[in-house]
Amino acid sequence: MATVCGASLALMDAGVIIKSPVAGIAMGLIKEGEKVVILTDILGDEDHHGDMDFKVAGTKTGITGFQMDIKISGLTREILRQALAQAREGREFILGKMEEALAGPRTELSAYAPRFLSMRVKPDRIREIIGPQGKVIRGIQEETGVKINVEDDGLVKIFSPDSQAADKAADRIRNLIKEAEVGELYLGRVTSIARKPDGKEFGAFVEIFPGVDGLVHISQLAKERVRNVEDVLKEGDQVLVKVIGIDERGKIKLSRKEALGLPWPEKKE
């Protein structure tokens, strides 16, 4: 019956909302002729040598479960009534002690409690989560320790031993399927300088999140006229840019000029 009490306390400690804590107690019986003694909270010896093992679990308002083994031919109504009364008294005492330790469920789910997260992605982005021959999804699972299941309709389920691993895996997936939005600011990194076949610079490619980049045309580098891209940006530089357009082929047009003077977005560690 200690497992019943421990399970209730563990659930509340983990932040799981339960209707009411449950405690359990085991009742015993010694019967010799007409002489009857009912025992409260029996141990192994009383169970072995006694005539009854009557386990009763419940809340302050009633019984939630019970189980009985007897070694005699039967019980009278009076013996059962008395056993239930003693069980209630013992159960209420234990519930009081449990309440002293933890009065109710904690307000937040424990960081160590297992997590199940779900998110929905566009079906045509599933291949980016899976990767060639499952390489990407296996990498996320190995890195974070979670299990990921992706349905054909785009439902992604993440099963994790704790919140930190679940959040890390979810962030990895969001970064894989993230899409640029017109008007939004992004803190990006210059991946290369764009040049025409004759070698003339006409802009810079900036990666705004993993695997997704856009072009900052030379006319969008600064408020003043820029003759050489590398006078303003060099490969590897971090730069704040604004999405000013996405064409029908999905190519992203970026502007550093429109982002100048605006605060940089906070980056997560």
Task: Tell the overall outline.
Answer: rod-shaped
Strand order of the largest sheet: 8-9-10-12-11
Could you spell the SSE succession in H and E letters? HEEHEEHEHHEEHEEEEE
Q: Structural class, from secondary structure content? A: alpha+beta
Ends apart, CA distance between termini: 46 Å
Helix content: 25-40%
Number of strands: 12
Using only C-alpha atoms, the radius of gyration works out to 33 Å
DSSP summary: helix tally: 6
- According to CATH, the homologous superfamily of the largest domain is GHMP Kinase, N-terminal domain
Weakly predicted, low-confidence segments: none
When the domains are counted, the total is 3
**CATH architecture classification name of the largest domain:** 2-Layer Sandwich
Q: Which fold does the CATH topology of the largest domain refer to?
A: Ribosomal Protein S5, domain 2
User: Average pLDDT value?
Assistant: 91
Characterise this structure.
The longest helix is centred in the N-terminal third of the chain and has 25 residues, at 77-101. The two termini are 46 Å apart. This protein is α+β, with helices and mostly antiparallel strands and 269 residues long. It has helices at 2-13, 44-49, 77-101, 126-130, 135-144, 163-177, and strands at 23-32, 35-40, 52-58, 63-70, 115-120, 147-150, 155-160, 185-195, 201-209, 212-217, 238-246, 252-255. Helices cover 27% and strands 32% of the residues.
